[in-house]
Amino acid sequence: MTALPNDGTISKNMGEFMNSPVTVEEKRITDALTGCYARGYILPKLEEMVEQKKPFTLFVIDLNKFKNINDLQGHNVGDIVLQEIGSRLCRLTRDSLIFSRIGGDEFLAVYLGTDAETINKLGEDTHNAIQEKIIHDNFEYEMSASIGVARFPDDGDSLNELLSLADSAMYYAKNNNLRGHCLVTDDISQKMARKQQIKRLLKTIDYEKDLDLRFQPQFDLTNGEVIGIESIVQWNHKEEGVIHRSEFVPVAEEMGVVQYVTKWLFLNSLAQIKEWNEKYNRNLSIAINVSQSCIYHKIFFTNVSKMVEAYGIQKKWLAISLNEHSIMHAPEYMKTLIAGLNQMGIPISIHNFGSGMISIGQIKQLFIDYLKIGPEIVGKCTTDTDSFQTLRGIIMLAKGMELQTIANGVENKKQCDILVELGCNTAQGNYLEKPMTADEFEQKYLP
């Protein structure tokens, strides 16, 4: 395996960047597994470059579907793949270019320049090096990567901003199946500016006065009856107007204040479902999406138990929805948590199921009641063969495991007809009904 020299003198130009004295914290200059520079060494150097106003370009490099190798072949094989990728990246090191492993299957390249022609060439070279087949023990591994690029000072004036921009560009490339690299665009910059704006607005939010609920019905596809509701939080800002959860909840989670949003969401949702079910003698369930940081909080289970008890509702009236990433990030903890919620009688669903993060074997070990299929799959099932096959596979999987399916994001009759034909149990989406206020829902569905 090719390793970088640990004296920080790769080249004349890069030497100026890397040659400053090594502190105790920077003692481990190279990543032990890959031979690339270590995260703890490279990031302080980049901070110095920002302070010194030296232009540079960042490439955030994320390996696609690397988790599948760890899951199917084991972490030992995963480490061998990472070693080979690291070795290839090290061989690309040249005048004014170095590579660092910043965590897991993510790498960072630093180029001491911002000219477009060289950036494009380095992006192509990096992608081509990664996608060469890796052969180990008669197995061939075809790798690819999503690469996001941000330039200093063109795209941002702080290291955190540049990393966020490059990360956003990388995810744009990944989500749109782009080959090669993706530069920060005006659209990505606008999204980052909007994120910064929401961060500022969240510092003055009044959770009791500014938050509001909308309710989207979930329909039984066999008879068309409303059997459940998804509770959707939105932020009614006095100047900005309605700010949807997809915009502000992730930012609140990043800022460490999402627990206040979640507490408000639970208390108001439980109060509403109690009122409706008791007033109309119904057994509707209300589904609440819970963010990852709230799920991992050590007293989450206790808080849910206390709120359910305080409102005196039947446990089946509440359904908790988790995403695949939350489950995979801490599988043993989640297994225990889900088992506890299941014993309480609270149904559990995995929302946006189908991203490929969780395996069938792992589902079998969990006490899951529903698989909630995301709009990314449902919305393309009539136009994209792969999406249709994925949809059909999920529904067949759920039937085989005696789980219920909920299709989210139904936008037209053709999609709805396909879901009925495939045997999906439940559906929601704007074609069936848009999110409604409490009064609108009560007047239309609870006569």
Features:
single chain, 447 residues, alpha/beta, Alpha-Beta Plaits, TIM Barrel, eight-stranded mixed beta barrel, six-stranded mixed β-sheet, globular, disordered N terminus
Question: Can you put this structure into words, describing what you see?
Answer:
- It is a single chain.
- With 447 residues, the chain is α/β, with parallel strands linked by helices.
- The protein has two domains: 12-184, Alpha-Beta Plaits (2-Layer Sandwich); 201-445, EAL domain (TIM Barrel, Alpha-Beta Barrel), CATH 3.20.20.450.
- The chain is built from 19 helices and 17 strands.
- Strands 9-10-12-13-14-15-16-17 form an eight-stranded mixed barrel, surrounded by four helices.
- A hairpin with a 2-residue loop joins strand 3 and strand 4 (106-111).
- Helix 3 (66-73) packs antiparallel against helix 4, helix 7 packs across helix 9 and helix 10 runs parallel beside helix 12.
- The protein is globular and about 75 Å long.
- The termini are far apart.
- The relative contact order is 0.07.
- The model is unreliable at 1-12 and 22-27 (pLDDT under 50).
